[in-house]
Amino acid sequence: MAETEIKAPITAPALREYPCIPALQPGAMDGVKPYVANDKVQEEVGFPGHLVDDWQPKALAKMGDLLGRYRSLKVFMDACVHCGACSDKCQYFLASGDPKNMPVARQDLMRSVYRRHFTLAGKLFPGLVGARELTKEVLDEWYSYYHQCSECRRCSVFCPYGIDTAEVTMAAREILDSVGYGQKYSNEIIAKVHKIGNNLGLPGPALANTLEGLEEDIKEDTGIDVRYPLDVKGAEVLLVTPSADFFAEPHIESLIGYGKVFHAAGISWTLASKASEAGNFGMFIGNYEHLRKIALRVREAALELGVKRIVVGECGHAWRVAYQFWNTLTGIGAGAKDPFAIQLQSQLDQRYRQPMHICEFTWDLIRQGAISFDKAANDHRVITFHDSCNVARASRMGDSPGGQFEIPRAIIRACANHYVEMAPGTTHEQTFCCGGGGGLLTDDLLDLRIKGALPRMESLRQAADERGVNFMATICAICKAQFTKVLPYYGFKMSMVGGVHQLVSTAIKLGDK
Amino acid sequence: MSIFFAILFYLATAVLLVGLARKIADYARTPAPLPIVTTPAPTTGGGVVWRMTREVALFESLFRASLWLWGLAMLFHVGLALALLRHLRYFTEPVWTGVTLIQPFGLYAGFAMLAGLIGLWVRRLFVERIRYISTPSDHLMLALLIGIAASGLGLKFVNHTDVVAVKMFFLGLLRFDLQPLPADLGLYIHLLLVAALLLVFPFSKLLHAPGVFFSPTRNQADHPREARHLSAWAAKLESKV
User: Fold this and answer.
1) What is the CATH number of the domain that holds B161?
2) Do the chains contact at B62 and A85, CB–CB below 8 Å?
3) What's the ipTM?
4) For residue A167, what is the nearest residue in chain B, using CA coordinates?
């Protein structure tokens, strides 16, 4: 494929020299929405096939249920004062100017219904407090605008009450699913992961084949037998990585990198066909049961294979789920007092953090001197780092707050000579989403995705023009896929994006152990 | 009139206390099934207390979001806090030393509060984005607070009321011993507006005050790998395995 080939007649918004807050363009993104899941997909994941007749009482009942189950939703519905601190923080608003893409307005799509049906003020004086009935128009609006949020949490950084629109979006999608109004892309993927073990629907034998091919390629390239083991009982480490790593470019370059790190450090490891997916789209649709069921596959694989450590590959929301949720959902972690979690935690080697990010793993080895680099091998690259939203704002690496920023950068500096930061206010916890996270990485939302990438493209353009940046490293499968697709629309080469372990792979010294 | 205001303030206080207690109990009872703290975040309970203190006392997140908004919000909230402290002299006998000490500052605070509120309203009216997200109640709330601040300042600078008698009235309320309230229109307006504020507090966006302490993205410690966080309803799913 030609590097700048563009298929759809969609154009990117112009990069602005001085990024400013756009004037409001009401209705600019009205009706932009992903394909609705059909009956078959919906039923496979246990939701009604299509919009049920009594959807209104059902949706309100579901909303009441969620308000009772999630303190976040309840507090976030009440606490907003409409101060507007978040109003200029969302990449989809900055690029589209559609006021309903301001986080507060996105939340208000649900808050207005909450007020009408769950608060005294909204029951008595709906007009006064902006309360609305849940009509079909409102439901359609939810479907559209809650699929224009990538659950990236940038707004939550700036909210004085910590209101996280991602929680509201998840609740809205959960309500929509419960009345049979689900999103095709996410629900198809969830069906696949339950059935086959990964989001791509890549069955075990095909996976084994792919890995063998990879070993041959690396042997050809380096002359060294780097192994990519699958379902090996008694391996020290179980690596759980997004399935895009098995075949997509540039993801696979990072997978090659992980294998080389294990090889160079002499640590036995394995992938698992049962847990051949780190991603967990259960989170995107806000459904705890799916989130948990998908995560349990990792637990089962770990127990079957008897591994001592669990390491997670480069993936943003997957790391959020692993880091923040796995201990709760599956017992992968430490500190449990209940038999369910102790069963697994007593098997895992508690001298190590469980689960561990591949960057933590590699960085520990670098610090111990267990692996080393020929940094000059990366000299053709001037590298910058795009903090992936869920890693930045919903997880940590290492022992102290902010390790999720320091460790990937430290790895890059250890294996390359030219590293440059993008503009402050667009990195670390204030990083912009790539534009394709949270279940939006589907071609039916391509226009939205291109728009959503605008703020990142602006800071990348600046870094490229002023500092000669020609490689943007990231540690998320969605970021990689999204940028590969979107970069050409902004006049960049798609090969400009890659994983941190792609850089590791380029420079690592492979002693033949 | 004294009887009317006595009843009004007993009622408003009761609504405020019961309403807030119910809301807080509701927040406290509702589980937070997953750790969702916004990172980077403190890893210990002590760290969380410190983060929350910065959030509540200094509006740390707001500072990052918008300096203008932060400045106006600070002006209003600090002004309000000082004015409230100054008003404690109407409810304490003898007046606490700290309250005596801040009396002079409390006076300026009234003006700061008013300036902050006017600034916030101007912003709400003239910044397109903020006007878009405003509901009538947002404007009314500002009008109410401005009314309280302005009528309060009026009692001090325009038409000085008999503050000793006002104090006797409120001490009387606290002791269930009704004392006469000075017959003063400015005072009536000030007290009516304050009572209205107390009454709407538990049903309005003023719930941001208790809400912030229950916000899971701010009040959780970042240690999900070290401690298992399991809510009651989520634990029930486990027993089904």
Assistant:
1) 1.20.950.20
2) yes
3) 0.96
4) B36
